[in-house]
Amino acid sequence: MQNIHQQAVLDAHLLQLVSHDPRLEAVRQVAGPLHPRMHPSGFEGLARVICGQQLSVASAGAIWQRFSERGDAARDPQAYLLRYETGLEGVGLSRSKILTLQRVAQALGQGQLDLDAVVGLPVAQAIAALTQYKGIGPWTAEIYLMFCAGHPDVFPVGDLALQKSVSQALGLEPGIKPAALARVASAWAPWRSAAALLFWRYYGVQNRKDALPV
User: pTM higher than 0.90 for the full model?
Assistant: First the structure.
């Protein structure tokens, strides 16, 4: 599996993507250069993605900053389990996210979840392995696979920015649903992660803000 955290791989995938679907050349012209964004894998990376669920980029970043300042709780599952009940006041994590992180930390500590093994699975199997834990849905699993594992063929169809960006860029009906977006994105396999980065960048340029979710 080629890792899109490498600039050369991302560049190659983007060239192949645009050659395969010439409509995307205009999108690329607006988006400008793409650069990988990498976050650590393991508990730290998954915790960061969970922190960002259903939040703006700015809010998620502020919560993660406060969380990461609480010793090793944001990086080590055992440290998290020692602190999650009384040591996270003021961080801004909702109770549901605190419990989701507890379940993940326990599964990692007990050997029920092996994130290194998960990222080597085919996408559907990797998503299934992660979403068996309450509080982790497809979006969380897909964002983890993209930004923490560098998986090259993921397109998070539940992401609102991607829905808006694809609709606007390709002249599709506004408010495209995830199932319809999945059908559109299926044409971009096996470079769907590059396509997602392209459309996030396009959305960010059009709205003058950082649109990447983590």
Answer: yes
